[in-house]
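TASK: fixed-backbone design
INPUT:
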């Protein structure tokens, strides 16, 4: 962390979302190497497939800004980067306007303490309030109990399966404010 605090290198207009314990903020340039390494180290249950490295790094340099459905934010606990949360457009599955796909990953030592749940709530709340979100969805390997529990504890509802990249049959979840109610959609 810089002497000036976690927002010191953020550009004016970068998105920052503060919750009871966490701050979701733009990643700093000096944090990008570690984020790439975390992707390389992640197993197939955590990411569907390893992204192209230059594209991934370019994406993180745009962190803090929502562009074409993509937004990457650092999950910051008391000035320490503990993970990353993002919206993205899945490869080969363009999303309709107002629909966001959400992903999250925490450093190993930060897991299992409710941070995942808080970060999910913060970003979904912001998307509904500031980004005209109508539908927010997420997916995970059915064997990823921690992610499934975090979705459930944040009030998300499970609805079928989806294919994400090369992974088929991932459990699909919808955040509470959009979950389709048949009568409200007719
Ligand atoms: C998935 C992840 C974001 C969840 O965030 P988190 O802060 O760890 O989750 P929470 O603490 O909010 O809740 C986790 C819940 O799962 C439970 N849990 C965690 N690991 C578990 C396991 N192996 N078996 C059973 N339950 C488990 C916890 O007990 C907790 O349940 P509770 O709320 O009933 O106590 C985080 O664990 C993570 O980053 N994992 C690695 C990356 C990843 O898998 N990302 C998702 C890819 S789709």
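OUTPUT:
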């Amino acid at each position: 962390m810089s002497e000036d605090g976690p927002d010191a290198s953020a550009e004016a207009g970068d998105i920052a979302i503060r919750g009871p314990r966490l701050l979701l903020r733009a990643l700093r340039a000096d944090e990008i190497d570690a984020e790439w390494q975390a992707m390389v180290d992640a197993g197939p249950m955590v990411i569907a497939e390893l992204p192209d490295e230059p594209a991934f790094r370019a994406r993180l340099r745009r962190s803090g800004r929502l562009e074409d459905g993509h937004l990457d934010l650092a999950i910051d606990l008391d000035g320490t980067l503990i993970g990353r949360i993002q919206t993205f457009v899945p490869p080969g599955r363009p999303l309709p306007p107002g629909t966001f796909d959400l992903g999250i990953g925490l450093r190993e030592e930060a897991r299992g303490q409710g941070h995942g749940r808080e970060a999910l709530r913060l970003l979904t709340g912001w998307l509904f309030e500031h980004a005209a979100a109508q539908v927010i969805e997420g997916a995970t390997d059915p064997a990823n109990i921690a992610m499934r529990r975090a979705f459930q504890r944040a009030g998300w509802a499970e609805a079928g399966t989806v294919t994400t990249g090369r992974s088929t049959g991932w459990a699909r979840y919808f955040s509470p404010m959009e979950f389709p109610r048949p009568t409200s959609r007719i």
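COMMENT: The longest strand covers residues 80-88.
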